[in-house]
Amino acid sequence: MNKSLSGFEPCGIEVSAQTLLVALGREDHAPSRREFPNTAEGHQAVLRFLARWGRPVRIVMESTGLYGLDLALCLDRAGMALMVAAGLACTPAAAQDGSQNDNAMRCVNINNSLPQDTAIAACTAIIQSDAATNAELAVAHSNRGNAYQIEHKYKEAIADYTKAIQLYPNFVDAYNNRGSVYGDMHDYDRAIADFNEAILLDPNSVRALRNRGLAYARKHDFAHAEADVREVTKLKPDSARGWNALCWARGALGRLNEALKDCNTALKLNPNAANAHDSRGFIYLKLGDLDKAKADFDTALMRRPRMASSLYGRGLVKQKKGDIDGGHADMQAALALQPNIAKDLKAEGIK
Hints:
62% helix, Nucleotidyltransferase, domain 5
């Protein structure tokens, strides 16, 4: 699930008499910067540029004199959320009173610092407001869907994400988040269909590629999973999560030496990543290096004591080393936490 600061892509536009300098700060991507002529044709080109990224955009426009007035009107007519700095008043699309701003912050609920009921109520207030633009409504529905998903109210979450897509058909995050809910419901085909839409809208979406790879892995389609997470590591080579996912997928495919390198890369990027220690533990287990496997499982469990996969993996190691009772105890503890863990690991070649 994506919970960016506002639900919008932040955009800055600097206006001069002849040109428009546009900077779009895109999450999981390098910032995009373009220059356009300050003409009617240039204004339309700016709209096309902002529309192509698949998320609603919140714009801060710096302008002096009257050079930005026509562009401000053009952006407002297009339903963009816009604030104009340096002398011009905010447009109707961005005009909000203090309570609306409070609702916007509560609806986003950064780091889930508020109870989800509070976030849901704030999003609902925005949705019921007559002042909200379609883009703002789409973001409010998406953020309310996030809150419902955390509460495991999947039917309500799907309804909100679907409404967000209806209001803003190119809303990459809404497709991605709805796919995540379908994944939570174990409906992996629908999840993959939504991730496909997100990737069609934004082929470089690290989040959508990673999520689709996870959905394929949960279907035990490790070849497709490997292809997706390999692309993630190309787009975001500093992502420890991406390298760990590639390690796991290649391990399931039996490409153990490559997988070991991937896990080592993940741990170099984030030495405290319990998931990467867990993944590397299973690679060592498959390679027959039981001492290194146990060391990784122990480290993973030190950081996440209720990690079912590491408990089960350590149990397998203990039994292979002759500690039948100790291994059985670890494996039973893992099954109590995650009843399908043995079945899932068997599908990945671990037994």
